[in-house]
Amino acid sequence: MRIVSGQFKGRRITAPKKLPVRPTTDMAKEALFNILNNQFYFDDISVLDLFAGTGNISYEFASRGTQDILCVDQDHGCIKFINDTAESFEMDIQTIKSDVFKFLEKTKQQHTIIFADPPYDFTEEAFSKIPELVFENNLLESEGLLIIEHSKHTDLSNLKQFVRSKSYGGNVFSFFENETSDEEE
């Protein structure tokens, strides 16, 4: 995997084979960041990377100037790899080793972008728990975005606050936003 843009553009990152991960493809990552680039100033946002795995998405945000990044993963090897890689690139990425669902139930910190890349074999119930906890606990800033990566065999369009999805090969990004009332317009 490589960083596709920003300060560290072109830098390759090689994760140990023993990590239980499936990194987002460079093509899908580049397409996702093209969408986000039109909506956010990366140096002004806060990012929460859930099921962070190798930290692939977080490195991309950091390379583009994001200073406030928190990665959550329950695998010790993943957290160690993210910490080591962030240190070698001198990126300010924070990590928490935790079950993502337990973390979402306890945290009170809001973020501009919450990115979740859970295992593709999650049940629909497990996938639906992510936006449920994010919105019930008010973890997304008012103009923020929750993005869940999943396979093309999973459909999240029936979940509350779903707004759209984009497919790239076998990868799909589903986007969720806070509900807005007519009063705000």
From TrEMBL:
Transmembrane segments: none
Keyword Transferase annotated: yes
Gene3D superfamilies registered for this protein in UniProt: Vaccinia Virus protein VP39
Enzyme class: transferase
Keywords: Methyltransferase, Transferase
Origin superkingdom: Bacteria
PROSITE patterns xref list: N6_MTASE
SUPFAM superfamilies assigned to the protein according to its UniProt record, in alphabetical order: S-adenosyl-L-methionine-dependent methyltransferases
UniProt-listed Enzyme Commission number(s): 2.1.1.171
Cited InterPro entries: DNA_methylase_N6_adenine_CS, RNA_MeTrfase_RsmD, SAM-dependent_MTases_sf
GO molecular function annotation: 16S rRNA (guanine(966)-N(2))-methyltransferase activity
Stated name of the protein: 16S rRNA (Guanine(966)-N(2))-methyltransferase RsmD
